[in-house]
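Researcher: Checking consistency across runs. Here is Alpha-1,2-Mannosidase again:
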Amino acid sequence: MSLVDALDTLIIMGNTTEFRRAVDLVLKSVKTDANVNVSVFETNIRIVGGLVSAHMLSGRVEGMQLEDGWPCSGPLLRLAKAMAARLLPAFNTGMVQFRSFVEIHTFASKRILSVSLMEPYLEMFDN
């Protein structure tokens, strides 16, 4: 998780060599089907948010190979979308509340979160 957190910082600091190395490592090592329980909140802000930020900031990295269709495509964005898809079962509870933890391998959701803690998510996904 810390490496994903560091991606945008590396770009902002101008350390493009380490950014490229970190991106390669993240793309090789982050698994969206690991058999672990994750916090929906932490995974959303740190992993999904970190990947999206790094994806968007990667356009500022001189010499960075960007895919055709960037910023609407790219490996970091695909990884962010895959991880976000693993979080969706937490919101599909059939109730007003949602689950605070998800087992990302099986999509099983656990622990109900209170309505007051859901408000930021409701605003974000209200389209």
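Researcher: Does this match what you'd expect to see?
Model: One thing to look at in this run: The first helix runs from residue 2 to 12.
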